[in-house]
Amino acid sequence: MERELLLLGLLRQSNMHGYQLNEFIEQNMSVCIDLKKPTAYALLDKMAQQGWIREFQTQSGNRPPRRTYQITEQGEQQFQRLLRENLAAHDTVRFPGDIGVAFLSELPAAEAILLLKQRRDALQTDLEAARAVPPHGGSLQLIIEHRLYHLETEIRWLDSLIDKLNRPSTESFGSSQMK
Amino acid sequence: MERELLLLGLLRQSNMHGYQLNEFIEQNMSVCIDLKKPTAYALLDKMAQQGWIREFQTQSGNRPPRRTYQITEQGEQQFQRLLRENLAAHDTVRFPGDIGVAFLSELPAAEAILLLKQRRDALQTDLEAARAVPPHGGSLQLIIEHRLYHLETEIRWLDSLIDKLNRPSTESFGSSQMK
DNA sequence: TTTTCCATGTAACTCGTTACATGATTTC
DNA sequence: GAAATCATGTAACGAGTTACATGGAAAA
Predict the structure, then answer these.
(1) Does the beta carbon of A175 lie under 8 angstroms from any beta carbon of chain B?
(2) Which residues pair with A53 in a beta bridge?
């Protein structure tokens, strides 16, 4: 439901048509959500059918008419509900990269270290990109900080893992058992 | 491709039938992956068609025959490839909960704090559950540590956010702009 | 004997993505 | 007149989930 929440939240600030919404999300929200155009259009349709938003044609100049959306009273209530739901809950995050880690012992330590260093580089690149984002006003700044927090932790964890592989003194975790 | 990697990795250790694989994953890997039965069966079918694994009937007692799978030479090569790919890459994590944060300023501060504290409680519960997991041997331990690392960071970030809301001294980030 | 566990699936559905289609308008 | 950008979609597909169907075997 984050997608609906996002669209409602944006339409609450001002009426917009699909293209505007897509552009805004791409340019400003890409840090935290990846919402493609067809998905957005489909969602707007669905929400209009549910009565959360209403649609009307707008003409500007001699351009073809655009579908502009406006949040309804019902939509406002949904926004309030979804916002509270989203803020109060915590969604478990899964790391696909952990599967590889589960089979780390199947590789010679030297190669494992090499591969993890590649992962580290990728992370570092992401981190620098996040650091380079010019400071946004308002809540967006919070989200960028969240990202920094997270990426820094990931790097620290990876480093500790690489470290462990470098000195397998205390009984290298072998192919012993995964049970 | 993590799912394929996981199944191949398990079949590498011993031949198994679908039910065994599902059980093992549920009991031991639920921390890092959520693979439902129908998905696993479908994946096994697909991999058998691709020649990564081969299937044969096994009979035990007077039970109905089971489809037991064995990794092939080709499957072993895929495993090696997928493992390296997985270890070297880093997948960007998205936090659906950030969308709510983006609209935090739409709520009275007191309520925002209350909701975030609920989120904190949920996180804390997860963290304690992760801490309570009895130490596993081998690589599984690494994944549990990863989870701990991550959850602890999330809590710290949330705390810093709640803190910020508690003292809006330095110009509370208003509904100013999200642009 | 009824419930639980073993064992394998199918069918329908949801959600989201990619690739494609269309056409008008502004800019070079 | 060509290219970019504005604007809206559709169609096909893919991945994964839920709910359901089936049936034998073991345990209560």
Answers:
(1) yes
(2) A71
Residue for token pair 């709520």: B107
Query: How many angstroms separate the CA atoms of B28 and B34, rounded?
Result: 11
Residue A134 confidence class, pLDDT cut points 50, 70, 90: confident
Tokens of B162: 């709640």
Q: Which residue has tokens 């990697």?
A: B5
What gap in Å lies between CA A84 and CA B72, rounded to an integer?
51
Chain B residues whose CB is inside 8 A of the A96 CB are 2, 33, 86, 91
d(CA A158, CA B2): 19
pLDDT at B178 over 60: no
Instruction: Give CA–CA dist A111/A4, Å, rounded.
Output: 45
pLDDT of residue B61: 67
B101 CA: distance to closest CA in chain A (Å)? 7
The pLDDT of residue B170 is 54
